[in-house]
Amino acid sequence: MAAETVYSPFSPTETAQRIAQTFQRHGLALLSPSRAMVVSSSQVERLRLVVESPARVVDASRCRWQDAYGRPISLEIHRDARGVTWVDYRLPPKRINVFGVIECGKTHDDLVQAMEVLLGEALRR
To answer: What is the mean pLDDT of each run of 10 residues along the chain (125 residues)?
Structure first.
């Protein structure tokens, strides 16, 4: 599972608020608005959001892997040493069966596109 990283032009707190509002505006629940300070050598602040997967909305195919794609998605928002804010998240991988055939490829592609659209809307100036 590859992690996606998206640049945010806003502070970590404002980024988290914008993401939460955008998901809620599209009928997706914010499952755990938690704020955690991660202790590290640079004392970097990390915010963690758990949001409802857009697969619930975009998966009309009722793919048999919907339970995997419909699980909540965790996003970590943090500011690096240069002061740049980043959003990291991980989506379920494409499922490939024993015959090498991608199962639920459309569901996965729709989920990727939905996340790109939602985060694009949330992080636009």
So the answer is: 85 93 92 56 73 78 72 91 93 84 83 94 94
Q: How far is residue 34 from each of residues 37, 58, 107, measured CA to CA in Å? A: 10, 26, 28
67: helix, strand or coil: helix
* Partners of 46 in beta bridges: 36, 78
What does each C-alpha distance from 104 to 101, 112, 121 come to in angstroms? 10, 13, 26
pTM of the model as a whole: 0.83
Cα 23 to chain centroid distance, Å, stands at: 10
Residue written as token pair 């707190």: 13
**How much of the chain is in helix, strand and coil states, percent to nearest 5?**
30, 30, 40
Residue 77 C-alpha from the chain's centroid: 10
pLDDT of residue 22: 95
Q: Return all residues near 77 (Cβ < 8 A) that are at least 6 apart.
A: 8, 12, 15, 16, 19, 46, 47, 48, 49, 85, 86, 87, 88
Helix (H) or strand (E) holding 54: none
